[in-house]
Specification:
The chain is mainly α. Helices cover 60% and strands 8% of the residues. The protein has three helices and two strands. α1 (11-21) crosses α3 (43-61). Residues 2-52 form the BFD-like [2Fe-2S]-binding domain. Keywords: 2Fe-2S, Electron transport, Iron, Iron-sulfur, Metal-binding, Transport. It comes from Vibrio paucivorans.
Length: 62
């Protein structure tokens, strides 16, 4: 699903960056992509995706 329509960034891209690059916050995502640089409507959902991804990674580790 597209999270950022302005720049065509998907939830898969966000999850991949979180897992592969260890990005845990919106600032890290913004450094790697243009997410949130236009209308900003995607920021809240991106934070939720990052939190969910972190939670799932912790669950896998335990």
């Amino acid at each position: 699903m597209y999270v950022c329509l302005c720049h065509g960034i998907s939830d898969k891209k966000i999850r991949k960056l979180a897992i592969d690059e260890g990005i845990t916050d919106i600032r890290g995502i913004k450094k790697c992509t243009a997410l949130g640089s236009q209308c900003g409507k995607c920021v809240k959902l991106t934070k939720e995706i990052l939190a969910e991804t972190q939670y799932l990674q912790v669950q896998k580790a335990s």
